[in-house]
Amino acid sequence: MRREDVQPLLYRAADGLPEPDLTDAAWANGVATRRRRRRNVLIGLLTVLGIAVGAAIGFGVSGSRNADIVPPPTTPTLPQGYVPPAGQIAGINYWVAPPAGSERFLDRLYTPLGDRLRLPDDPDPLSEHRLENLAAVVLEDRGGRYDALLLGGDSSWARADLQLRPIRTGSPLSSGAISPDGRFAAFPQPGELVIVDVTTAEVFRFALPSQDVSSVSWLSTAERILVSGPGVAYRVVVGEGGDGEKPVTAIPSARNPTSITAPYRMDSGAVLRYLINGEYSVDSELQLPVQTWVGQTFSTYTMTARLFIANDIQQVPTKSSQPQVVAAISTLRALRSSLLVLGETDPSTPGTADPAHVREPGCCAVLGWYDDYKPLIQVRGWVLAWDVRTGKVQRVTELAVDGVALGPGIRP
């Protein structure tokens, strides 16, 4: 066979064989490589996990042998200006207020009332100077009749010539006179209730069955108001009433007219919640050493406050007066309640025997709230604010008027 015949024979033989698929070969090789890499990664993870488990077991064993290695305890964060309580009364923390005569030296809480609240010289008529948000109401005696002097949140005054008559207890000013929205002021009168709208200067009069009423307390919507006197109480609809609701409805009364308040009332040995039918239900029991409740109950969304004259309190003995205590009771179980005992001047201190500095029963009462945590308290000649979170007491204003009702406009 010749050499030149060999190559054609090889081509014919190769023509009958299948051609190799290089793509399949490359794919198979890549799959194999990826499987090897996954296997290596899995082995590495299992190795790290084994090391971690072993370290944890070792730490637990060493920790059991060394009980001193514990995380530090968490210290609660106290609010700025916090004053530690003096102790507890009936299981509630109490603070002792600065003594009478020291009020002017307290830090001041700035409000539209100014440093000293007195009657304005010549305020404009309300019809000419309407107000937006009432901060305070005082009365001026004008020959046996009273005009209402209204202080707005902008510190401006207006006069409402209502010609109010005196009531059995004297001045027809109740500490609950101002509505929660700062729009209305209400005054009890013999046989009627007089309400003035400070945004429009309109005056509304509601006839009442009783000639002897002395206390008013607004419901939170400012569409209804409670009016009470000895042995009588009424709910008066100021806004739109419900279907079939009468403008004036008799509700259960109390021996003390100032006890008829909404949405809460502290009376006897409990905090009571006002119900729509005029009844009250028990919200929480109280174990306080109460001899007599004084003034009205004022409430926020989370707390309610009222002052009481106490029986002798062993924790805070008094020498010149009976103990008087402001009870700020939480209506939420998650918040704590607090007490403020109105202190008295130490008679052993030189120059402090002035009887004007003795806080006799009846001199003091709660007037409302500055905010959700600061009840406003009238003491002899002053209005004070007490922060229930810190225990700190501040002066609000010195009083050069016989009485005052406070409203939401007191807040800036």
As for the CATH topology, it is Neuraminidase
Principal-axis shape equals globular
Q: What order do the SSEs take from the amino end to the carboxyl end, as H and E?
A: HHEEEEEEEEEEEEEEEEEEEEEEEEEE
Query: Can you give the mean pLDDT?
Result: 85
Order the strands across the largest sheet as they lie in space: 1-2-21-20-19-18
Low-confidence segments: 19-23, 61-67
What class, by secondary structure content? mainly beta
CATH architecture: 6 Propeller
Radius of gyration: 39 Å
Range of strand content = 25-35%
- Strand count: 26
Helix content: 10-25%
Give the name of the CATH superfamily.
Kelch-type beta propeller
CATH top level class name = Mainly Beta
Number of H/I helices: 2
Q: For the record, give the distance between the C-alpha atoms at the N and C termini, rounded to a whole number.
A: 120 Å
Number of self-contained structural domains: 1
Largest sheet: 6 strands, mixed
